[in-house]
């Protein structure tokens, strides 16, 4: 077993505030999968930006709102995830402290029947 310190930094790009991100190592030979953990304080936001690759924004704890393509904000909470496609403009906000796993991949996402899409 090896134990490493995880690099952490405050995120301020794209007018983001109240966000601290833990950067986990990239996975080799896996279509460029990357997983990061974000802690977004209540009232914080990851500002609007274009998804460089397909992204899964999975809420581990807390709740907030997400929006894409200039559309209206949608509620999101623990146990739910937003998926943004490459090039899609998007933003997220925390209404209470929120812990989020962010998965980025150049590959496809397999959404089997156990994943039920939530409609407003």
Automatic annotation (TrEMBL):
**Ranges of residues in domain Cupin type-2:** 38-95
- Quote the InterPro entries the UniProt record gives: Cupin_2 (IPR013096), RmlC-like_jellyroll (IPR014710), RmlC_Cupin_sf (IPR011051)
Q: Where is the signal peptide?
A: none
Specify the domain of life of the species encoding this protein: Bacteria
Gene3D superfamilies linked to this entry: Jelly Rolls
Protein name as it appears in the record: Quercetin dioxygenase-like cupin family protein
């Amino acid at each position: 077993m090896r134990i490493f310190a995880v690099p952490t930094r405050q995120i301020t790009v794209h007018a983001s505030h109240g966000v601290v991100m833990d950067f986990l190592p990239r996975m080799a030979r896996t279509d460029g999968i990357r997983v990061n953990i974000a802690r977004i304080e209540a009232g914080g936001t990851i500002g609007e930006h274009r998804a460089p690759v397909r992204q899964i924004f999975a809420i581990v704890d807390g709740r907030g709102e997400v929006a894409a393509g200039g559309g209206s904000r949608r509620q999101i909470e623990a146990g739910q995830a937003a998926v943004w496609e490459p090039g899609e403009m998007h933003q997220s906000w925390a209404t209470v402290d929120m812990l989020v796993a962010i998965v980025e991949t150049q590959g496809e996402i397999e959404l089997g029947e156990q994943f039920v899409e939530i409609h407003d």
